[in-house]
Design brief:
Number of domains of chain A: 1
Strand content of chain C: 5-15%
Chains: A alpha+beta (134), B alpha/beta (118), C alpha/beta (276)
CATH architecture of the largest domain in chain C: Orthogonal Bundle
Strand order of the largest sheet of chain C: 1-2-3-4-5
CATH topology of the largest domain in chain C: Globin-like
Oligomer: heterotrimer
Radius of gyration of chain C: 32 Å
Shape of chain A: globular
CATH architecture of chain A: 2-Layer Sandwich
Radius of gyration of chain A: 14 Å
CATH class of the largest domain in chain C: Mainly Alpha
Largest sheet of chain A: 5 strands, antiparallel
Distance between the termini of chain C: 90 Å
CATH topology of chain A: Heat Shock Protein 90
Shape of chain C: rod-shaped
Strand content of chain A: 25-35%
Largest sheet of chain C: 5 strands, mixed
């Protein structure tokens, strides 16, 4: 049985709230300090994207358990914004090449264990990430 | 919106970020620092992030920009007190924060500014 | 696991002869356990399991199946921790089939139900294997973590200069640990210089170099400069042929060279003292 926190992302304060909530859940799930920081940082990137590029959205935070019995935290971000035309381009490193869309998606992906991005032009964007405890 | 206070100590501007800042506050800090640098002709800026738990790409960009703005005013910026977990995460994110010097704490940061260290 | 209500008749039969069946089951299990658990403990365990199995077969309540799996999983994990082989634990479950078979051997009309029952017990036996594997893996992971922890010391060479001797393959897990310890030590000692000694790292390829660069980067964010030393001649050749660039990171052959470099950088000098 999993409990899910659903938080709106409509303002800068909401992004902070999402960070704080993810931090609490991650700490309670037994993630190390470094892993907590990585997850919260990724969540911050994705929440901001939902706000700035998606025109606002929702964050869903829940504790999950792997098949091997490890605890993890799954955070999902969804928005009804314009969507991403070229997902591959969005996932390239915007920092080193100067290309990409500067969405920080590739960075966020490096910080988590599982990363799933679904987006279609005109149909909004959804990103789900999971960080497992060790 | 929270406004981060800027202290003037001699020719150095000192900023201590104590709370989880939201984007508007960070941008406001950048503006306020630019104003202060112009008004005081300070030669150094110390940004203390000992209490900061998260530095994402947005905040990282802001910090790099603060470094660039300071240089335009012929001042040097030193970022001090970064937490290990934050340093590891930033490295993983691929943010090198070029253009901003770093030191372990405010004391070492001041030494860097006065050119006594290295 | 399917809740087969057509096992109702069999369940009733098994309930009526509970003592006899559990007794026989107990005998079979005790024989396999060879004294590592007491007969009394086993009897209690088996009685609980039996009750759950009957509930599932009767198909009356939805939670019974989940409870049964949970109890078996816990049993299997506990057996694993106590050194039982997975075969022993699974056989203990399978032997219920033997005990029940002896009961219904003469009732040919119960054959279809016995088959369903048998399949259910097979499934449960396999479950104990899965749980066993997961429990052992947990133990191995914990031991690996402990070993990793032990093999990453950080030493203080001088005021403000620390050294990290790296031994073994530098994979991402070890790098993470090394970086964490290095950074924590930087904060604790206020060091400005860190020497990464890679003498004990057998191969330095692009991946290892990337890990090293990340560590150096992180240390820089805390205001410390890193020096990499312990580069053996073959390693140096590999690095160059792979086109790896260490950029502005100082690299030295030996720890002594690195220490000399760090001392100079720190504005210190070593001089001979006149011993009159």
């Amino acid at each position: 049985m999993t409990l899910m926190d659903e938080l709106p992302i409509q303002s800068g304060d909401d992004v902070v709230r999402v960070r704080q909530r993810v931090r609490v859940v991650a700490a309670d799930s037994g993630l190390s300090l470094v892993d907590q920081t990585k997850l919260v940082t990724a969540a911050s990137e994705l929440a901001r994207n939902a706000l700035v590029y998606g025109g606002g959205g929702t964050a869903r935070i829940e504790v999950v358990t792997s098949a091997a019995g490890r605890a993890g935290v799954r955070v999902g971000f969804s928005d009804d914004g314009p969507g991403i035309a070229d997902v591959d381009l969005a996932l390239t490193d915007g920092w080193t090449t100067g290309g990409g869309l500067g969405l920080g998606l590739s960075g966020a992906r490096r910080l988590v264990d599982e990363f799933e991005l679904t987006s279609k032009l005109g149909h909004g964007t959804s990103v789900v990430v999971i960080k497992w405890s060790r | 919106m929270e406004r981060v206070p800027i202290l003037k100590l001699g020719r150095t501007l000192f900023v201590s970020i104590q709370i989880d800042l939201q984007d508007d506050s960070v941008m406001r800090l950048q503006e306020d620092l630019a104003d202060e640098l112009a008004a005081t002709a300070a030669t150094g800026v110390i940004i203390d992030i000992t209490a900061v738990e998260i530095v994402d790409s947005f905040i990282g960009r802001m910090l790099t920009m603060i470094g660039s703005i300071s240089r335009l005013f012929d001042a040097e910026t030193v970022l001090v007190g970064m937490r290990p977990a934050v340093a590891i995460t930033l490295t993983e994110l691929g943010l090198s924060l070029r253009g901003v010097r770093t030191a372990l704490n405010a004391e070492k940061g001041m030494k860097l500014l006065s050119g006594r260290a290295r | 696991m399917e809740i087969d209500s057509s096992q109702g008749r069999m369940a009733a039969y098994m309930r009526d002869h509970q003592d006899k069946v559990v007794g026989r089951w107990c005998e079979l299990v005790v024989a396999g356990v060879r004294g590592r658990s007491s007969a009394v403990e086993i009897r209690t365990e088996l009685e609980d399991l039996y009750a759950l199995v009957l509930r599932v077969m009767a198909g009356a309540d939805q939670e019974a199946a989940g409870e049964l799996r949970a109890v078996l999983a816990e049993l299997s994990a506990s057996r694993a921790r106590n050194g039982f082989t997975p075969r022993e634990t699974a056989l203990a479950v399978f032997s219920l089939k033997d005990a029940v078979y002896e009961l219904v051997a003469d009732s040919s009309d119960l054959v279809p139900e016995y088959l369903s029952f048998s399949r259910m017990i097979d499934d449960l036996g396999l479950l104990t294997f899965e749980t066993y594997a997961a429990a052992r893996e947990r133990i191995i992971a914990d031991q690996a973590a402990a070993m990793l922890e032990l093999s990453t010391p950080v030493v203080r060479l001088w005021d403000g200069i620390i050294a990290v001797p790296l031994v073994g393959t530098l994979d991402s897990a070890r790098t993470q640990l090394v970086t964490e310890k290095l950074l924590e030590t930087l904060v604790a000692t206020g060091a400005d210089h860190a020497v990464l000694d890679i003498t004990g790292v057998p191969t330095v390829d692009t991946e290892v170099a990337q890990h090293l660069l990340k560590t150096v980067n992180a240390a820089r964010l805390l205001g410390a400069e890193c020096i990499i030393c312990g580069i053996r001649p073959q390693v140096a050749q590999t690095i160059v042929s792979l086109g790896i660039e260490f950029g502005d990171i100082a690299t030295k052959a030996t720890l002594a060279d690195a220490l000399r470099h760090a001392l100079t950088h720190a504005g210190l000098k070593v001089t001979e003292v006149d011993r009159a």
